[in-house]
Every structure is written in structure tokens, then in C-alpha cells.
Amino acid sequence: MDWPRGLDGLSYGGDYNPEQWPEEVWDDDVLLMREAGVNLVTVGVFSWARLEPREGEYDFAWLDTVLDKLHAGGIRVNLATPTASPPPWFTLAHPDALNVRADGVRQVHGSRDTYDVCAPAYREASRRIAAALAERYAEHPALAMWHVHNEYGSTSYSEHAERAFRVWLEAKYGTLEALNAAWWGSFWSQHYGEWDQVLAPRATQYLANPAHELDFKRFTSDAMLEHYKEQRDLLREANPEVPITTNFVFGQWVPVDPWKWAPEVDLVAFDSYPSHPDERAEQQSALHADLSRSWAGGDWLLMEQAAATVHSKDGAVAKTPGRMARHSMVHISRGSKGAMFFQWRAGRGGAEQWHSALLPHAGKNTRMFREVTEFGNTLPGIAHTVGEPVDATVAVLWSPESWWATSGAHLPAPVDYLENVAQIHRVLRDRGVVADFASPEGDLSKYATVIAPTTYVLSKAAAENLRWFTAGGGRLVASYLTGAVDEHCQVWLDGYLGGLTDLFGVRVTEHLPQPAGERRALWNFGAAERFCELVELRGAQCVTQYATGDLVEGQPAVTVNPFGEGEAWYVSCKLADDAWDRLFEELELAGPGGPGLDVVDRGPWRFIVNHTDQEAQVGHIIVPAGSWAVDKKPQ
């Protein structure tokens, strides 16, 4: 399938909200889009109230006009179903379709994402608006692809969700006996005698059951996927040639498993919003891009980013000149089919009126629009360089279930799963290594090295997959708490490690959380932070020991064990960045880049993004400070 349909080269544009503006602005928008090099816009994401002002009564006249004008101007359309924001008439008629928080409070209309994905009335209304859009626009010449919903992630703990959860559990476990066994139901008198006794894991007196919480996140991901597929199938039936996507978003609040979702979309799309204004924004952009490419198994599309600012907990910070283009090129070099933004024209009102846009409030005669235009008109010149796959021989395991499970308060010490993954990715990036991500149960055969950072939840299938990979000649590197529990959040006995003590040649006998802020030195290997484990050698060789620390001084910290044709390394602590760098040096993991540089090879082409304030030279390619380049790589 050609995606986006009818577009050659790279896509450039963003969310376009013409319904927020008078019609006389629309012609100016098309002219300015053409000037800026925009060739694709997303339309209709939050327009349900304008498309269906009353139940069953549609107003498509304004959208007809917009699509016709865009088509006449050569702008292709990514047409959205507006189900992420139900209109006021719907929520007044169906208050039970509003989402319920974990504390039992039902939220009210007034923002976006106020829906309960399990509510029958909401599902029916979603199908109805999707079918109406499909009937009217499936053959429209401007249509490049469909965009279902927006940023799935609104969890509801409602009665509707509970009923659907019970159906899901019965299909998964078959019997209450199996459920009680999986959830360790005899603990705290949580043994269920009837299916109707099972509730959503709302706020409770003390600690919740971790297996209950994990299964509810799995269920919510599946329930949202059902909602997506219902709309997708209606759109596909209307015109099988038009590709269909939805935009993934990143955050602890998002109960979506991209490994399960990716096969259901024609194009993986991702919204990248780094959460730090400093150099971590570049690190996060690279992380987001490598995750997206890995979920997709190849090309994907950056659906949203902010043009002029980086958001942080302290508020937005302005991007310096060239940073918008560099962030975009980080994504394009790593497989994105283009660079899209939220949004095209900055809004005058509403909660996101100060969100940056390609066309600022001050109009075209601005620094930002000149930068947008310069970059947009540069992209056609590099479109021929992005057809090759990204070169990567290292994979980092990405486990949504480990992320979900380690967010619970029941662990012996706080575990930041995302930071553990991001740390390994950024140290590899600083060493010039471009990494893929892989599912613990996925195909690892093309990689020489696989790194498992705190892969806390390890199923029997995943454990056997790692065993097979290593025995076949792969190099496996796992860090602390990997394989601590199985898929039911039950502890792996006799040494943890997913039952793979023979693979690693060690037995973990005790978890030893350390005081926050204190470091444990390792011999010639940097230091460990916050979490250590007591390890007993069972055939493995000790690579380095703890040099300091009660209980751990002199004990193995990093080990290696030959297994079949490969070898398994185990890191029994949370390493600091310098220690990971030392380990990767030992493993001879290095590439052509370095700190502040993104260097990505794709077939004969080398992409270089220089985020530093100094000119950089990689091979024969010289890249000015704060700039980027694409050239033939050395043969």
C-alpha cells in the first residue's frame, strides 16, 4: 500500500483546524502552505461538534469546501475521525459514557478525551460518525489517508469497563480457579468466588494487587484497540486503497501496547514531545524515533511535534534557530516518512492557544515561518535518500508490561523503567551506535547484541526466546530486576532471572536497595546507584566487583557467562552513565558518531545532525554547528 497515498517523497505539514477560523482565512492558508512546502495536513481531529451538531444530523458543507480548496492547491489530506472529543450533546445524553477516574469520580465535559471506550453508546456513536465520513469522503481526490481518533490513552474505571474487563478475563483464564491462581488470590482474602466480584482496580485502602493492575492495563489496551479496529474496518470497506493510521503517544498514562497495535495500522504514526528543554530533548527525539521505527518494522511517520518550543514541567522553552529542523531530521534519518507538526496555524482561543505552530499568531513575516519555509522547501531535495533501511545490529528490549508493572508502589524501591531504557539508549547514541528496539518475545535473529534493561516482567516464552538467541551466537546483556516476575507478576523462584540462572551462570539471592543519592563504586568500572543485588556465581566469570558498600563490597557486580555459541552478561545494579559507557567499551560497541551528534547510516547514505556549537567532521562530511547534512557514506 502506498502511504501516504498520492504523495511522493517526504510528508510535511501538520494538524489543520479550519473550523476554528472564518472561511476567508482558508484561501490564505492554502497559499501559505504552498509557500512553506506543506504537502499534507491532518483535518478534523477535534471537529465532531461541527460535523454532527445534533445526533444523526450532519453538516459536511464546510469540510467539503476545505477539502476541495486543499485539493486545488495540491495539498493532500490526512482525514481524521473525531472520536477523541465527543460533542456536548453526546455527553449530556449519555453521561455514563464519560470516563471514570481511579478514585471513582466521573469526569465532565469541558476538555478532550472525556469518553469511556467501553461505553456502548460511545462505541455506537463512534461507528456512526466514522461511517458517515467514509461514505462521503472515501473517494475524495484530496484524501491521502485516514487518521482514526487521536492519541489513544484515556483510561476509564467505570461500570462499563468492569463488565468488559470480566469478559476479557474469562476469555483469558477460562475459570475463576485459573484467575485466582494467576492473581495469587489467597493473599489478603482476594480469592474470587464469582466473576461479578471482580472490579476495576480503583483507588483502595493500601497497596493494590499488582497482577490485577497489570491485567487491567492489558485489557484497556485491547479495548482501545477494538475501538480503533471498528472504525478502521468501516473506513477500509469504503475504499481499501486508502491507508489507515492512528497516532501513538508516549507516557506512563498511556495503556497501549505498540507491539500489539502496530500490525493493525497501515503506517505507524507517533507524536514526539520531549519533556526536557536541554540536550535531553535531542536524546528523547532519537529514542522516540528508534522506538517508532522498531514498532513499525521499517518506515513510519512523525505525526506531531512542536515547531517553536520544547515543553517541560516548568513550562515551554523556545527552540533556538535550527533546532526545529534538527529535531525533524533526527526523526527522518531514523525512518520517518516526513515531519508533521501540531499545528499549522496558531489558535486565537482555547486551551492550546499558546501551543506553537508552523504559522505563528504574528503571521508569515516572522522568524519562525521563515525557518519553516526554508526547511519545508529543502525536504524534496533529500527525498531520494530515505528509501534504504536504517543500519542497526544492536537491539534494546522494550517491554510495555515491565513499564506498567514497575510503576506500582509495591516494589522494594522506586524503579524508573523508562529512564533505565533511555539511559542505555543515550549512552549508545553518545558512542555513535544506532539501536533498534525489540519485543522480549520478538524476532532477535538479525542482531549481534541484545540489551534487556530491567525487563521486570518476563514470560516463559520471552525467557526461552532469550535462551535461543544467546545459544545461537548472540550476546545478551541484562540489568538488575530482569526476570524478577512472570507474566502474572509472580516471582520467579530460585534466583529470579526468569528461570534463566543457567543462561547467566549466576543466581540472584537478594535485592539490596541503596539509600537515594549514594553511589557504590565498582572496581575500574564507574559506579552503581540506588539498586544492587547480591549475586552468587554459578559458572559465570566476574567482570567487576563492588568496591564499596555494606553487604555488597567485594561481591560480583557485572558477570559474563558463555552459553552455546554466545554469551550472557548480567549487570546486578543500576549503573551510572559512565559505567554503562565502560561496559559498552568492553563490548566494543561504537559507531561513527559521538556526543551531540546523530549519525545514521541508511544503505549508501549517511545522515549527520550536529547539535553542538562546533563544526563537526564525520569521515569526509563536514557539518556546521547546529546544522545537518546528508551525503554518501565512505565505502
Automatic annotation (TrEMBL):
Q: Which Pfam families match?
A: Glyco_hydro_42, Glyco_hydro_42M
| The name this protein goes by in its record | Beta-galactosidase
EC no. given is 3.2.1.23
- Alphabetical keyword list: Glycosidase, Hydrolase
**Keyword hit for Hydrolase:** yes
Q: EC class of this enzyme? A: hydrolase
- Matches recorded under InterPro entries: Beta_galactosidase_Trimer (IPR013738), Class_I_gatase-like (IPR029062), GH (IPR017853), Glyco_hydro_42 (IPR003476), Glyco_hydro_42_N (IPR013529)
Family (UniProt): Belongs to the glycosyl hydrolase 42 family.
Which residue ranges does the record assign to the Glycoside hydrolase family 42 N-terminal domain? 15-379
User: Where does the Beta-galactosidase trimerisation domain start and stop, copy by copy?
Assistant: 392-587
What superkingdom heads the lineage? Answer: Bacteria
> Which CDD domains would you find in this protein's record?
A4_beta-galactosidase_middle_domain
Query: What is the organism field in this record?
Result: Glycomyces mayteni
| Catalytic activities | Hydrolysis of terminal non-reducing beta-D-galactose residues in beta-D-galactosides
